[in-house]
Design brief:
- The protein has helices at about 5-30, 40-45, 50-55, 70-105, and strands at about 60-65, 65-70.
- It is mostly helical.
- It starts with 6 loop residues before the first helix and ends with a helix.
């Protein structure tokens, strides 16, 4: 396993943690509808690339400079992600098994 780098995995972990912190901030402050929407400054959230990505995906909804979390779209996004990643993980797992069988002969 020489030459294996864990840098890509660490980047993914950092992104997941930061995404979770943004979502938790909205939940903890009750910012879950247009009526309770707040500015990013009020939420003490920096409008980073990740924040903007959540907005583009419709997970964070912007309403006159104020934002709120759309729980349904978050749930839908998680379902789509899982339904995409799970088959890929199964394929990678099977390829690893086949490679192990092939190279141990």
């Amino acid at each position: 396993m020489t030459g294996t780098s864990f840098a890509p995995m660490m980047i993914i972990i950092v992104i997941v943690i930061r995404r979770r912190k943004i979502i938790d901030r909205f939940r903890n402050t009750g910012t879950l509808s247009a009526n309770t929407a707040k500015t990013a400054a009020e939420l003490q959230i920096r409008q980073s690339l990740l924040f903007n990505r959540l907005c583009r995906r419709g997970i964070l909804i912007e309403n006159s400079g104020r934002y709120y979390l759309d729980e349904q779209r978050l749930s839908d996004s998680r379902y789509r992600t899982r339904s995409t990643i799970l088959p890929l993980l199964v394929i990678v797992f099977l390829l690893l098994i086949l490679a192990d069988l092939y190279f141990t002969r």
